Amino acid sequence: MRARNRELFGLIPASLLISAGFAAVFIQRSNQLSTVSLVYGALFLGLCIVGHIFIRVTLPNADPYVFPLVAVLACFGIVMVYRIYGATFARQQAQWFVVGLALFAATVIVFRDYRKLENYRYLIVIGSLVLLILPRVPGLEDPTNGAYLEIHLGSLTFQPTEFGKVGLVVFLASYLRDHRQALAGGRKILGYRVPPLKHLGPLLLLWGIAMLILVFLHDVGSSLMFYGGLLAILYVATDRISFVLVGVVAFAAGAWYLSTHIPHINARVQDWLHPFDPKLYGALGGSFQLANGQFAMAAGGLFGQGFGQAMLTVPGAHPVAYLIPAPGTDMIYTVITDELGLFGGAALLITYLILCARGFKAAILARDSFSKLLATGLSSILAIQVFVIVGGVTRVIPLTGVTLPFVSYGGSSILANFVLVALLLLVSDRARRPEYAR
Amino acid sequence: MNRSIIRLFGVVILLFTVLIVWTSRWTVFDATALQNNSLNRLEFFATEKIKRGRIIADNGAVLAESVRAGGGTWTRRYPYGSLFAQAVGYNVLSQSQRAGLEWSRASELLGKPTGLTSVFGSFNGGPKVGDQVDSTLDPKAQRLARSLLAGRVGSVVAIVPQTGAVKVMYSNPTYNDNDLKAHCPPNPEVIGCQFNYATQAGLPPGSTFKLITTTAALDSGRYTPSSIFNGDSPVIVSGHSLENDSNYSYGPVTLTKALTDSINTVYAPLGVKLGGSLMQEYMQRFGFYSVPPLDYPANQMIKSGERFYPGVCGRHKNILLLPVTNSCVDLGRTAIGQANLTVTPMQMAMVVSAIANDGKLMEPRLTSKVVNTDGQVVDSVPPQEYDQVMKPKIAAELRQMMRDVVEEGTGTAANLNGLNIGGKTGTASTGLYKNGQELDDAWFVGFPESNPKIAVAVELTNIPNGYGGTYAAPIAAQVIKTLLAEKQ
């Protein structure tokens, strides 16, 4: 079967999922099966088919699995948001999905030859850094749990770091394409090959600025994500495991320093280690969220309580009090495991893993260094983002607020991730293009 | 570069594996510990959304029902309030406060998941509904008991001897379970208004305990109702003089006569002659030294038996009761219901219930059946035998002796026409005085001898010169009359 037809068939599970999901929530809510669920399913199938036709025309050789995987995740996200926050929020999420598709199309058209991104790399990196600073700009700032994550533009909230991550990956891929040989070489000092400062310097400077900004913003989740992305691209670019080791050691030292010297971060570490400590549990913005996320997962068990069955709010409380604060954004994975169990959670993680695998596949198939590094960086940062948030709620690492890509409620996340996917498909299309057409 | 990309993907696979492993920790391996975590309120919130089943009386009157409290939660309403508060109790989830049937039958009232019904129930969008608990309690008799106690501290318990069904369990003081914050008038005799006299009060049984002594004497085969005893007063028991009421000497008397006139100077030496181990044996058969097997919260019931006071008899720790085989128990005075013997009205009701039912003690119960919302009986609560305390022949002899008590002895006040009530009075001196009069605990336990379908124990606390025959017997008689009339 040709690639594009495979993609078309891949969309069927996505629309089935959304129909079944809405049907389940409807049955649970009103004890009757309404045709509305089928309408939603058809609507989404229609949207996805539009996206598919667009890819068929513009990116005929692109990986056939990426778009259906994204559609599955996004549909799943809309069902979960509908179930958690109700119709209004689900409609917003669906609207963001439509806008995201448009942005996806725009990205594909504008950056049809994505290598011209390289020409703007310094513009892109400065733009990305500005995006990172924005949440702290007076008048736009709106701290959540001690972290500056969002800005307000009128009634719109916007998480600029989501876009910043894509920009930084583009810059790193471009910069390391030029400097990777030099970085891999360098003089030997005490048997260790130290890369020349001339090439390493800008990288360190960039990293330092990004980290400072994030520490300044108290947004550890995003900094972890950027740092991981940087190490991944650096490793692939230079093929030097020692860079990763040095990076991990530096990170460990930095993490130790920050966790002992910045109260906000220290509190997060304490919550992570002792979520059931009554003092931390009762503290404002303490471990209450993390602990209740764990209780929700425990309620799920192997197969979950079923769609719509999780206890999310305190019964009878006015105004609505969520048992797990941020159930549709940061903590959405706990709601998913509560309702669908270990199997549902694992299935979701495997979906992400396959999506990443397709990204890495594109990187392997790509024929030039920039494409390889770009695809690697984008796939890695997606994987790390999932690890940071799912690892955070499952207590593998301290909880820091980043979104679960395509699934969490939030416009910025969906839009930025559609740009990410557009770039990934552009790389893939070019890589899989038959020799003569190049 | 491709090699590094593949390795990098390997790292990603590793990271995701860690995520799945950690997810399985919380969802499966550590799930039970998390569910039992004291901070975990999920189960509590889930139960708050369940419409608890009703509790109804034996005539269908609603004793407890759920009413909407907004936000999909429910609150409890008790239409009879203080009349049934001790038996029905209450359930205030938010403060983890619960008592009575609301506690002991909580899982039924919440609708215990039973196989398939729970799976299908989860598809049902409506609120989860618990099962209805049909109690054995009789509102008419319960109300009569309250009016006859007339505000005095005390208790009335009525049991159907053949099934163990508790028809009346009323005690003063009581409280309004609709309003738990209401002020409770201070009372030196009770620990708060929620203290259930019927099951929590350890009271001296007085002469009603002679029924147990008589049972041991007859059922062991060592004596018959016509065995002759010396009824002269006083006698020396455990080194101290013991007198009859008014120090009256009866001369040689039969055991029947001794019970009829409640002759202490016969029964105290009789207890000593029977011995501690035989007395202990029969006490335990009647249910002493055990928490009554009632479907009522265990921490709202106490065991009956010889109370242990630390320091008086050795230095035992952590024991509340002493077996009567113990050498420092005054067995003679125990045999007449004095010494340090403490009993609950519920325990004494069980004693007469066993005698009324040919010696077979049925486990007392407050529930007749549990019914689900479809009207199906989920649990029929079949009667359970506790013990065959004595031979049926002995029980018949005892009933005849107890009939004599009411006909011509201390219990004549219970001798209502046509009912042929048999019983035993008890007048336990408390050692307290008020206005120069000694305060007594007045007891009467009994049943209709010719038609023993109901057994009653009545206790009144701290009555001046409170003879059981004077104060408790008429109450018991009225309750028996009412309950028997309902049965026919």
* Class from helix and strand fractions of chain A: mainly alpha
Query: What letter string, H or E per element, gives the SSE order of chain A?
Result: HHHHHEEHEEHHHHHHHHH
Roughly how many Å apart are the termini of chain B? 97 Å
The tally of domains of chain A stands at 1
Give the largest interface.
A-B, 60 and 46 residues
Give the uncertain stretches of chain A in residue-range form. Answer: none
Helix share of residues of chain B?
25-40%
Q: What percent strand of chain B?
A: 15-25%
Spatial strand arrangement across the major sheet of chain B: 3-2-1-6-17-18
Keywords:
heterodimer; A: 438 residues; mainly alpha; two-stranded antiparallel ribbon; 15 helices; 69% helix; globular; B: 488 residues; alpha+beta; Penicillin-binding protein 2a (Domain 2); Beta-lactamase; 2 domains; 6-stranded mixed β-sheet; 5-stranded antiparallel β-sheet; 34% helix
Mind explaining what this structure looks like?
The complex is a heterodimer of chains A (438) and B (488). With 438 residues, chain A is mainly alpha-helical. Chain A has one domain (3-437). Chain A has helices spanning 3-30, 36-58, 66-85, 87-110, 121-133, 160-184, 197-217, 220-238, 241-261, 263-273, 278-282, 288-300, 332-365, 369-393, 411-432, and strands spanning 151-153, 156-158, 187-189, 192-194. In chain A, strands 1-2 form a two-stranded antiparallel ribbon. In chain A, strands 3-4 form a two-stranded antiparallel sheet. In chain A, a hairpin with a 2-residue loop joins strand 1 (151-153) and strand 2. By secondary structure, chain B is α+β, with helices and mostly antiparallel strands. Chain B has 2 domains: 50-135, Penicillin-binding protein 2a (Domain 2); 139-366 and 383-487, DD-peptidase/beta-lactamase superfamily (Beta-lactamase), CATH 3.40.710. In chain B, 34% of the residues lie in helices and 22% in strands. Chain B contains 17 helices and 22 strands. Chain B has helices at 2-29, 31-35, 42-48, 85-88, 100-104, 106-109, 116-121, 139-149, 197-200, 210-219, 255-260, 264-274, 276-286, 331-335, 345-356, 392-408, 468-487, and strands at 55-56, 62-70, 73-77, 90-92, 97-99, 132-135, 154-159, 166-172, 228-230, 235-237, 240-242, 252-254, 305-307, 321-322, 341-342, 360-362, 367-371, 377-379, 385-388, 421-434, 437-448, 455-464. The relative contact order of chain B is 0.12. At the A-B interface, helix 1, helix 8, helix 12, helix 13 and helix 14 of A face helix 1, helix 2 and helix 3 of B.
